[in-house]
Amino acid sequence: MSNPDPHPVITVDGVHKIFRDFWGRPKVHALNGIHFQVQQGRVFGLLGPNGSGKSTTMKLLLGLLRPTRGSLRILNADPQNVGVKSRIGYMPEESYLYPYLSPDETLRLYGHLLGLSEDENRTRAEELLEMIGLTQARQRPVGEFSKGMARRISLAQALLNDPELILLDEPTAGLDPLGCRQFKDLILHLARRGKTIVLCSHLLADVEDVCDRIAILYNGRICAEGRMRDLLQESRTCRLSIRQPPPALIDELQKTIRQTTGQEAVVDHPSRSLEDLFLTAIRSAQTDQNEFSGAQPEGRLAPYLSGVASPENAPPAASPP
To answer: How far apart are CA 264 and CA 261, in angstroms?
Structure first.
């Protein structure tokens, strides 16, 4: 998922952020000396309850706010640097779209603002609309779309400039399970390409599926930070999995464990996730239906994001887990 020699793309060192009132008096101490780094090619999860400082941290990374104290570097530059902003993709928590524009017009507009050539702008818009499953709805006004369909356009807009650093604020809010699976597959693919992603979400299952490291904020401080597997692993408990064991073997194992450790072994059957069940059921149903009026469940990864020259060679953006 990462490059063999990663280097810090984000460095946050002792950052404080104090919001003051009209007379300059401290009103809210939003961040209290937070420290973390994000290496190239990593997916970093920023978690915490409402009011913990996540949105403030995201605005600092985007250069929309300045820290009161401490230092912050993005792509080896100050976040306020205009040049570095062209290397960042951002998906805000709310989708702010012009309601009378179609998806194609929306992406073409942002491509023009990014300075893409006419041919490149047209090609990327077509590839992204296919990737997010909105090709059939490309001429409908986005004001008619559901929240999930609007989120798909916001994601495409954030990827138009093929950014090195991608900041995503509640990206799967409003997406159906198929869209969530597609989004997570896309994030993992982009990380393998060496892109760096910071993900801010309250959906912990999505964070667990894609993030290498996480930081949990509470009251402006980081109360837990590290590699996902290290934080979640219960090192004092072991689990043994055997496919279709005979009942006699289970009885013998339980007896041996009881005699050796004095503990009763818990025997149960593993279960697949609800997401896995949902995706399997929907994919089975798709074979019986040829048309769908909303967002398509999956599309091909935009070739310019995968580094593939032609759509025929592009890998799928989503696959059954």
So the answer is: 8
Give the tens place of pLDDT for each residue, 216-245. 999 899 998 999 888 888 777 777 778 888
Cα–Cα distance measured from residue 132 to residue 225, given in angstroms and rounded to the nearest whole number: 32
pLDDT value of position 216: 92
Q: Is 39 within 8 Å of 164 (Cβ atoms)?
A: no
How large is the angle between the packed helices 147-158 and 103-113, nearest 10 degrees? 30
- How confident is the model over 67-94, as pLDDT tens digits? 999 999 999 999 999 889 999 999 998 8
CA-wise closest residue to 93 among 155, 139, 45:
155
Q: Are strands 43-47 and 165-169 parallel, antiparallel or unpaired?
A: unpaired
On the CB side of 215, how many CA atoms lie within 13 Å of its CA? 22
> Greatest CA separation found in the chain?
77
Predicted TM-score of the model (pTM): 0.79
State the average pLDDT for the chain: 84
pLDDT of residue 134: 87
**Cα–Cα dist 210/305, whole Å:** 18
Tens of pLDDT along 153-173? 999 999 999 999 999 998 888
What's the mean pLDDT in 280-291? 64
